[in-house]
TrEMBL record:
Residues 68-193 form the Nudix hydrolase domain. Residues 1-21 are annotated as: Disordered. The keyword Manganese applies. This is Nudix hydrolase domain-containing protein. It comes from the Eukaryota. GO terms for molecular function: 8-oxo-dGDP phosphatase activity; 8-oxo-GDP phosphatase activity; metal ion binding. Gene3D superfamilies: Nucleoside Triphosphate Pyrophosphohydrolase (3.90.79.10). InterPro entries: Nudix_hydrolase (IPR020476), NUDIX_hydrolase-like_dom_sf (IPR015797), NUDIX_hydrolase_CS (IPR020084), NUDIX_hydrolase_dom (IPR000086), NUDT18_NUDIX (IPR042970). Belongs to the Nudix hydrolase family. Signal peptide: none annotated. Its cofactor is Mg(2+); Mn(2+). Keywords: Hydrolase, Magnesium, Manganese, Metal-binding. Residues 1-16 have a biased composition (Low complexity). It comes from Perca flavescens (American yellow perch).
């Protein structure tokens, strides 16, 4: 082979390598732009189809109402005097005690359909949901969706209409003595009143998109004092936000911990994994056992634990680098957010947590 042809071949290989690098960068940039668009949609309360589950699927069963999951809907409804709608229980174990209109989602129902049915059956009113107020969960097998709603028709159920659903309904001024079935509703009423007076998060209602399992899709961020912000992504088959299945032995939000454990096992115990709230949630429910799942699109913050210990259990001084903990699993990558508008939105949500709260009752 002549020097000239050898030189040409080396030159060709160099061009080929540069071409591959450029192509990979373009693919990554294109992938990140698509992820950015998805994050923007989630931030605005929209959904995004669940095409795969990245973590925990082998430990999770498909959601099936009455079998593997129970969903409760609960309505907080005020009148013009800020009195709250209450119903008197007909069930033997809580007979004549008072509670918010609430009940189980039935097979084939959406969450909003279940809410309208329960309020009609128990209180006599037609209603429309305004927003979700709070999600409470004890793992995927028991999740309560608490709505703020408004009366749109019907009439208050009286004793003459008593049945197995309830004895009657009444407006409660929250001051008069009333035998309550449970004091847990006082927090919900207070939460509804605060939102009614000064909304603390955007209107959030279920998005009609199907899902087979109960899953948590993570916008998992790391921030520093310089207000830089990174998002954890999975590389293949295309760059995307991690989705993890809920497992019945833990809170739904434990799915975020599973992702961090898989991505950076060495750093896991030096970080707090905080699910700050829900941007949006997706549920369909029309096909029993196939679309009974829920996807919670969540904001999760990875925060260094400032109290760290050495191998002997002694406290050591924490020295932060201002960088996210290094990824050890090649499936994952940190991406620093550069787009200013998205960066500002994520930083604001992270600081003020002005999104739908999700509380574990574990």
């Amino acid at each position: 082979m002549s020097k000239q042809s050898s030189s040409s071949q080396h030159s060709g290989n160099g061009n080929s390598t540069r071409s591959l690098i450029t192509h990979d960068m373009e693919v990554t940039e294109k992938g990140w732009r698509q992820v950015e668009e998805q994050v923007e949609r989630l931030l605005s309360g929209q959904g995004s189809e669940v095409t795969a589950c990245d973590v925990g699927l082998e430990q999770s069963k498909p959601a099936t109402l009455r079998k593997t999951v129970t969903y409760i809907v609960c309505a907080v409804i005020f009148n013009e005097k800020e009195e709250v709608l209450m119903v008197q229980e007909a069930k033997p174990d809580c007979y004549k005690q008072w509670y918010l209109p609430a009940g189980r989602v039935e097979v084939g129902e959406s969450l909003e359909e279940a809410l309208r049915r329960e309020v009609k059956e128990e209180a006599g009113f037609d209603c429309e949901p305004i927003t979700l107020l709070l999600i409470q969960e004890q793992g995927p097998q028991w999740i309560r969706f608490n709505f703020l709603a408004k009366v749109t028709g019907g009439s208050l159920k009286g004793l003459s209409a008593a049945d197995q659903e309830s004895l009657q309904a009444s407006w409660w001024d929250r001051q008069s003595a009333l035998p309550l079935r449970g004091r847990d509703i006082l927090r919900l009423i207070d939460c509804g009143l605060k939102y009614h007076q000064d909304p603390c998060h955007p209107v959030t209602l279920p998005v009609d998109l199907s899902c087979r399992h109960v899953v948590q899709r993570l916008v998992l961020v790391f921030t520093n004092a310089k207000e830089q912000i990174w998002v954890l992504l999975i590389k293949a088959p295309v760059l995307h936000l991690p989705t993890a299945a809920a497992v019945k032995t833990h809170a739904v939000t434990w799915a975020a911990n599973m992702v961090v454990q898989e991505a950076m096992p060495s750093a896991y115990y030096d970080q707090d994994v905080n699910t700050l709230g829900v941007f949006s949630l997706q549920h369909n429910g029309r096909q029993h056992g196939k679309t009974d799942g829920v996807c919670f699109n969540t904001l999760v913050a990875l925060v260094p634990d400032h109290v760290q210990r050495n191998e002997d259990g002694e406290k050591v001084e924490w020295t932060g680098t201002g960088q996210p903990p290094p990824v050890e699993n090649p499936r994952y990558v940190w991406h620093e957010v550069q787009k200013q508008t998205l960066k500002e939105k994520l930083l604001e949500k992270t600081k003020n947590t002005s999104i739908l709260p999700m509380h574990s009752l574990y």
